[in-house]
Amino acid sequence: MYQASNISFRVRDKIILRDINLNIEPGAFTAIVGPNGAGKSTLLKVMAHEHTHYHGDVTINGKAARSYSAKELAWVRAVLPQTTTVQFTFTVEQIVMLGRHGHKATQKENAAILEEVMTLTGTDHFRERNYLTLSGGEKQRVQLARVLAQVWEETVYPRYILLDEPTSSLDIAQQQLIFSLAKQVCERNIGVMAIIHDLNQAVQFADHLYFLRGGKIIAFGGAQQVFTKSNIEETFCCRVNVYHDPCNNCPYIIPERTVQQPLSISSKV
Amino acid sequence: MNLALPIREYRTAIILSALGIGLVIAVVLSLTIGAVSIPVADVAIIMLQKVGLFQNIAVDSMHEVVLSTIRIPRIIMTILIGAALGVSGAALQGLFRNPLVEPSLIGVSGGSAAAVVLMIVFGGVVIQADGWMYTILLPVLAFAGGLTATFTVLRLSNQTGRTNIAVLVLTGVAINALAGAVIGLAIFYADENQLRTFTFWTLGDLGGASWDKLMIASPLLILSSVGLIFFSPTLNALALGEAEAYHVGVDVEYTKRIVIFLSALAVGVSVSLAGMIGFIGLIVPHVIRVSFYADNRLVLPGSIIGGALLLVLSDIVARTVVSPSELPIGVVTALIGAPFFIGLLMNAKRKNEL
Questions:
Q1: How far away is chain A from the Cα of B344, in angstroms, using its nearest Cα?
Q2: Which of A121, A154, B203, B306 lies 20 to 30 A from B27 at CA?
Q3: Quick one: closest CA in A to B252, which residue?
């Protein structure tokens, strides 16, 4: 279990997160949704132990995150950022191999892992290409392969991956692909936490859902149970209607086309 | 399908061996050429006699003296300095994720030059180009000045326990500007003779090599250069960005401190031995990247051998073209390196590889 308990985080006087409790279960997909500026990315950085001056406790598999070294953290959790800029010309294969950086494994073991994650993500057929020449979708699949390579080995302890809006600049096919892969790897005793912008995608893939607003958790629970009109409207301050999609057997929302006061630049500001 | 990896490992080994062979040829060439030209066979025999072989073969005793007191210490110093400058440039470019970085950016060269010029102009003593002041005092001052500047830069760019790279680059620029001002001011007050001493010092000089100096300098140069090589995989991970490198298990702060310290040590010792030799730290890593590939496990060792190779070749040219006099080494490295580098760049641009 990857747990955050009573997390508060402030930058100077501004409180970014207040009293957050969050669990990522191995084998499950946990999604976090919330409006811009809700503190989602900050929460992810605290969970990843990138921000260290938080109050409260983050524990990974029962041990405080603070007591892990950088290398030990790399054995239990991997992080996929929104975009990754790479300086210098590395090949796709070299990038994926960087996921194995913190591991003591033989070259043969690493090569086998590389093969599996590259096949899974469909990046194996352009392994020799220069990473900088790839399209946005291909780049993100390569980064996902790198993240998976980091936590691929079946170990006695569960591993986790944290995804920070990993699909923000991708087309819908690529978006679905990234989330499907993340969902699929949960079977390997991996817990997934993802920040997702698209609510319909969140409810489609997530087992657990957290609504975050103003640094506080508004609601959480089983994805389909908490995916209610009231929770969504309270979190996003936007009128929505929730419907049921019989094909996916899953709820979905359509925002209401609200007729507010006519938009005028002065009143908006 | 799994062959892809071993082939790459092979490729690195092949490239490094080829560079190594090139270096050996250049070294032998350098040992034979000079005011006294010594045949290759004699060079080989004398070298082997040094390790206890072929003791019964007689060789020209003057050749032996020239080699063991002048050329061999000089070639060792040349190799070590070229290697140190090359690898510290490669490591800093990797650390800062910026291909424009060269060792002077962290203030080493500027600090060294400022310390040296202050001593020459305001030291109150006349410094002869071959006196003990020039050979002992200036190197020590250069080293102290270089390290002081680097630690100032590091200290100023410390932000709540982390080294902020953007601040570090800017402070480096500022410290270099300050050093430049100090140098300018000193030059303003300098007389003809002092000016000449300083100018030659800034152009670099490998002529001062001796076994005594090497005894002190070579452990430091070898330690720092080899130490940097161990960071090659870590620098690869840093190419993803600092946060991402941390995510894959890199202790980023530790890496920054050690890499900067080792680079400052390598460059500081080099500058103190041979004055300012620009260009190698900037260009050699690029030549390796453009000619082959950007994996730091190749670029760092490649820059060690490549830096040594470029400096040995430059030294041959410097010693021969205006013989018996010598061209300043810094002039030659740029004269040889720049056109070669431009050629490589044009080629890479055509192939759209940049």
A1: 16
A2: B203
A3: A70
Amino acid at site B319? R
Take residue B31 and report the two structure tokens written for it: 């040992």
- Interface predicted TM-score (ipTM) of this complex, two decimals: 0.89
- For chain A, domain boundaries: 2-84+158-268
- Return residues 12-41 of A near B (CB < 8 Å): none
CATH H-level, domain A2-84+158-268: superfamily = P-loop containing nucleotide triphosphate hydrolases (3.40.50.300)
- Contact between B5 and A79 using a beta-carbon 8 Å cutoff: no
Strand partners, A20: A7
Q: How many structural domains does chain B have?
A: 1
Contact partners, residue A38, CB within 8 Å, separation at least 6:
A212, A213, A214, A215, A235
- Residue A180, sorted as left (phi over 0), alpha (psi -120 to 50) or beta, turns out to be alpha
Hey, what amino acid is at B196?
R
Which range marks the domain in which residue B188 is found?
4-350
For chain B, the C-alpha Rg in angstroms (whole number) is: 21
CATH code of the domain in which B13 resides: 1.10.3470.10
Count Cβ neighbours within 10 Å for each residue of A253-269 and write b for 16 or more, e otherwise: beeeeeeeeeeeeeeee
Number of CB atoms found within 10 A of residue B226's CB? 14
Each of the 354 residues of chain B gets a pLDDT tens digit; together they read 444 455 566 888 999 999 999 999 999 999 988 877 888 888 888 888 777 777 777 777 888 888 888 889 999 999 999 999 999 999 998 988 877 777 777 888 888 888 888 887 877 665 555 556 666 677 778 888 888 888 888 888 877 667 777 888 888 889 989 998 998 898 888 888 888 878 877 777 787 778 878 887 889 899 999 999 999 999 999 988 888 999 999 999 899 889 988 988 888 888 888 877 878 888 899 889 888 888 999 999 999 999 999 999 999 998 888 877 888 888 888 888 888 888 877 877 777 655
